[in-house]
Specification:
heterodimer; A: 2 domains; 4-stranded parallel beta sheet; 3-stranded parallel beta sheet; 7 strands; globular; B: about 450 residues; alpha/beta; Rossmann fold; 6-stranded parallel beta sheet; 4-stranded mixed beta sheet; 22 helices; about 50% helix
């Protein structure tokens, strides 16, 4: 590494990693550290407010945006293992503070330094290549809507997966279609959500993959819970960072 | 409007089980999406066209009344009779009066979603006027006594085999005809009606303010016959369809044709400027234009103004993963899919269509393909906050999430609950969650926060 100073990153863990997937948080820290990044974890962090924003409770969402600002404003960069949370911070906070130019400036600054971890590695650390995975198994990639159309990251995760897994990486058919999660949508219209999930799982099965990677644990919570209902419990659902740390450390968990 | 209150949850639950409909919808929606993608890829300046479309539409929606008056004056100068309708009921009354004043008993009709919006067929039929749909898709669903399920491809939910069966049943054609034979059968049935109808009814894809013209696009030629053969032509046009100048039309047409079905231009295009003139051999004796408001002026002044920019191309429907999973009828509205989930509650009231802004995963595909960049997901998200006050549980959760110590406690509790396979306070949500899924399963081992603390101490 030829960097003038050590890069510092504050990890934004996200609710799903906080409650369900500690391994995603650990992997994120270790991946960043293996590239010499100094990681800190502000313990006062909570939720980005996305569930309130998307169910129309903009008042609560504003309060959460302000808390996020308080916790992370002084960070050099903020990295989260979730495209949808990053999309919220980057694209959805600003419109909540129309007519408050001073606050908007601060949120604009916050937005400009918040990244999904895969995005941070590609755009900021400029990592061109990842080492091969020690025990590659057939894997596919769910390019979530927030990754594609929220933060506009296309082809980057797929490229890293190809480097780590070689021919074991199989692209997913109809990759740009939503998996049917959609936050509150998943419990408001579970039959529709379930049908969309079945379609996505059907495509996953078609690839013959045993591992499904993504940059959004919320989609994967929905898909993995659905896979267990459909007797597809053998499928492993991971954040890309979990495969990265295995490749970087040369061992599986 | 609807005799039974629309209920998307119930309708969609039934719709996802109808594999025949879903297969038919997806087959055509895929074809339309692929053709659009190809047409857009072959148009190097498409993004510039979209920007133009949006900018020009912003000018128009900023002063709808100015353009409506200018259009009306120029259409009248060209010999048309222009009527203004405040709402759907007034539009229907005007149409009945025009028919009655001229002793019209039969009408042929081109496809028009605006006419669907005012339930024109039902109104005319009730007044004793027989209306025959002449667009093939509309002809099919009229035979089947259905409503359109897609704003551009009204019979998208029916397969060829189902249409063949319907034609055998209603028109007495031999069983299991192929597509060409079905088209021929419809043509044969329609030809006589075109020649004898008293009135031709259409919508209007564009209304040109500076010339007072109605522009209609079609791929079947039925519009040309509908607008020239009968002695009266009635066009029902929403005031949002007005564009300032004829010079704008080619660009909007380029956007519409590409987005609707991947064409550079439609097979037919009719520009109707006034009725038949002295010395002309064809064309109607009278041209009536009903300019419909039905909430549009009100919408133009509110926060969802850009929904009036919609060209009604149907691309957002064909690309929507929810629409493709439930079909158009599940929305129980004239306009289904993403654009419909915005415009339907705005026209008819959020209390009637409270479900529709939520019938969306915010995946963003619609905004990506919209030819005039209507911010559909943003509007759907914003409409949710107009629907109702947040439930108490969400307010409570918000308080917890804003208090770091409570949030941490909540995460610990949720983790423990889920490890045991339950969800405690979140049980109601879990009940819906488990309709199609098992409860979420936490990863084994210590929480991230515990790991981080231990690790920080060891460093």
């Amino acid at each position: 590494m030829n960097m003038p100073t050590t890069r510092r990153v504050s990890l934004f863990l996200t609710c799903s990693a906080d409650a369900l997937y500690p391994g995603v948080g650990r992997a994120s820290v270790r991946v960043l550290e293996s590239y010499g990044v100094d990681v800190d974890f502000p313990e006062e962090q909570t939720c980005c407010g996305q569930p309130w924003l998307n169910t129309g409770d903009t008042k609560s969402a504003r309060t959460m945006a302000l808390h996020f600002l308080k916790v992370f404003e002084r960070s050099e960069a903020i990295v989260a293992p979730s495209s949808s949370c990053v999309d919220t911070v980057r694209n959805r906070y600003l419109p909540l503070f129309k007519g408050e130019p001073k606050l908007q400036d601060r949120f604009r600054e916050l937005a400009s330094k918040t990244y999904e971890i895969c995005e941070y590695m590609h755009r900021i650390l400029d990592i061109p290549e990842l080492p091969p995975h020690p025990e590659p198994t057939r894997a596919t990639y769910h390019s979530s809507c927030r990754t594609l159309r929220g933060i506009g990251l296309r082809g980057v995760a797929e490229n890293y997966l190809k480097q780590m897994l070689g021919d074991h990486f199989v692209p997913l058919p109809d990759a740009d279609f939503c998996c049917g999660f959609g936050g509150s949508f998943s419990v408001k219209f579970p039959e529709v959500s379930g049908k969309m999930m079945e379609d996505k799982l059907g495509n996953i099965v078609l690839t013959g993959a045993s591992t499904v990677a993504a940059l959004d644990m919320s989609c994967l919570t929905h898909l993995s819970a659905g896979a267990r209902r459909q007797n597809l419990g053998r499928l492993r659902f991971v954040h890309l960072a979990e495969l990265m740390v295995e490749a970087l450390e040369g061992k599986t968990r | 409007m609807n005799p039974i209150a629309p209920n998307f949850r119930k309708a969609s639950r039934d719709a996802v089980r109808n594999s025949q409909v879903i297969a038919a919808v997806r087959k055509t929606a895929n074809l339309l999406s692929e053709m659009m993608a190809l047409a857009v890829a072959n148009t190097p300046d498409f993004e510039a066209l979209r920007d133009y479309g949006r900018a020009r539409k912003l000018e128009i929606s900023g002063d709808l009344e100015k353009y409506a008056q200018s259009f009306a004056a120029n259409a009248q100068a060209a010999g048309a009779v222009v009527h203004r309708a405040r709402d759907a009921a007034e539009a229907a009354r005007l149409a009945i009066k025009i028919a009655a004043d001229n002793g019209a008993k039969t009408a042929v009709k081109g496809k028009s979603m605006t006419a669907e919006e005012v339930e024109l067929n039902e109104a005319l039929e009730a007044a004793g006027i027989t209306v025959t749909e002449t667009d093939l898709g509309e002809f099919i669903i009229q035979l089947a006594k259905e409503k359109p399920s897609h704003i551009m491809a009204p019979a998208i939910h029916r397969s060829r085999a189902q249409v063949a069966e319907l034609f055998t049943d209603k028109l007495g054609t031999p069983p299991d005809l192929g597509v060409e034979a079905l088209v021929a059968a419809a043509r044969k049935d329609l030809r006589e009606k075109f020649l004898t109808a008293d009135m031709g009814i259409t919508g209007g894809n564009f209304a040109i303010a500076d010339t007072g013209s109605i522009v209609l696009v079609s791929n079947e030629g039925n519009i040309r016959m509908t607008t020239t053969l009968p002695r009266i032509h009635l066009a029902v046009v929403g005031i949002d369809k007005i564009i300032p100048e004829m010079a704008d039309m080619p660009k909007f047409l380029a956007l519409l044709a590409r987005s609707a079905c991947g064409q550079t231009i439609s097979s037919y295009m009719s520009i109707v400027t006034g009725p038949r003139r002295t010395g002309e051999e064809e064309g109607p004796e009278q041209l009536h234009i009903i300019l419909l408001d039905n909430g549009r002026s009100r919408i133009a002044k509110g926060p969802y103004r850009e929904i009036l920019h919609c060209l009604h191309c149907g691309a957002c429907l064909s690309h929507c993963p929810v629409y493709r999973t439930v079909g158009g009828h599940a929305y129980q509205a004239t306009y289904p899919g993403p654009m419909g989930s915005v415009i339907s509650p705005l026209i008819s009231g959020l209390e009637i269509y409270a479900d529709l802004p939520n019938a969306c995963t915010l995946c963003g595909r619609c905004a990506e393909v919209c030819p005039v960049c209507v911010p559909l997901p943003d509007y759907l998200r914003e409409l949710r906050s107009d629907v109702k006050k947040p439930p108490f549980m969400m307010k409570l959760a918000a308080f917890g999430a804003n208090t770091p110590s409570l949030y941490r406690l909540g995460m610990i509790v949720m983790r423990r609950m889920l490890k045991k396979g339950g969800m405690g306070l979140m049980a109601p949500a879990l009940k819906e969650w488990t309709v199609c899924r098992e409860p979420p399963k936490p990863q084994e081992g210590e929480s991230f926060r515990d790991w981080w603390r231990t690790r920080s101490h060891c460093k």
